[in-house]
Amino acid sequence: MMSRKRILVFAAKDVGARLVRHLVENFAEDEYRFIVGEPGADGIAQYLASKGQNFSLYSDAAVEGLHAVPDAHFDWLLNLWGNHIFRLPLLAKVKRSLNIHPAYLPYGRGRDPVVWAIRREHTAGASLHEIAPQIDAGAVWARKVTEYELPCRGQDLYARVIRDCGDLFEEAWPQLRDGILIAVPQEGNWPTNRRKDLLQDRVIDVDADAAAREVVLKLMAHDFADQYSALVKLDGTFFKATIRLEPTGEG
Questions:
Q1: Closest CA to 70 of 97, 87, 38, 92
Q2: pLDDT digits over 198-211, tens only?
Q3: Cα–chain-centroid distance for residue 175?
């Protein structure tokens, strides 16, 4: 293992909590500065305090304080599910950077990549990539395919992708830390998804779309016992299909 590293870590949520523990317990020789954000800040902060680690809760002041350190002061910036948007002045403080993204880049840049993996029937997975000014466009350090077959619910695939994100970091970090892996630029002009895209896509407007109305009515009309239930043929296999509509109070 190479010399001691200075590592700046932004962490939040379950993945961040898992990987903060992994770093502290398996790479204790390194010098860390943790910025802990929501959700999950209390649990991560309590753990770091119990280990005597240097940390701050995420705030504008905590981020501004980082600008006082010299350029290239940190060997690594690790964004472990933190929600900070990194700009060039802060990136200048680090020699290398890494973000975890729940997609098999270059597919699924931006928000909600698991949804778009299913909607567009492309590869799902996890990626470790350099942080760049453009969203999720940095060169890729490592990536991992999350296998799935249709039919597959978004929430089920998401849980598997999140697990693979943690696994991929734990597998790749020793070689990344020691400078063995080289980041590979992404290829292709792939779209970057935003939350508004998901909010629009999730609406099936049967008032305006005759084809969608036909499908929804068919599912409702054939919602009977097994031998009379609606069937969906997908890739040559038949699946029983049901539908449940509940008012939301919207619209």
A1: 92
A2: 999 999 999 999 99
A3: 21
Q: Is-contact 70 43, C-beta < 8 A?
A: no
pLDDT band for 2, please (50, 70, 90 cuts). low
194 and 212 in a single domain? The answer is: no
| Same domain (yes/no): 125, 15 | yes
Rounded Cα distance between 196 and 200, Å, is 6
**Does residue 251 lie within any of the structural domains?**
no
Q: Are residues 157 and 232 in the same domain?
A: no
What residues form DSSP beta bridges with 9? 34, 78
Q: What is the pLDDT of residue 249?
A: 84
Of 220, 224, 223, which is closest to residue 206 (Cα–Cα)? 220
**180 and 103 together in one domain:** yes
Among 8, 56, 18, residue whose Cα is nearest residue 36: 56
To which residue do tokens 């890729």 refer? 140
Let me know: does 12 contact 97? Beta carbons within 8 Å: no
Q: How far is CA 11 from CA 16, 134, 235, in A?
A: 5, 20, 41
Given a cut of 80, whether residue 251 has pLDDT beyond it is no
Q: What tens digit of pLDDT does each residue of 126-183 get?
A: 999 999 999 999 999 999 999 999 999 999 999 999 999 999 999 999 999 999 999 9
Q: Element (H or E) spanning 142, and its range?
A: strand 140-146
Are the C-beta atoms of residues 242 and 230 closer than 8 Å to each other?
yes
Task: Give the domain range for residue 74.
Answer: 6-198
For position 137, which CATH number holds?
A: 3.40.50.170
CA dihedral 33, 111, 108, 204 (to 10 degrees): 160
Which two three-digit tokens encode residue 207?
A: 């008032």
Q: How many whole angstroms separate alpha carbon 222 and alpha carbon 238?
A: 15
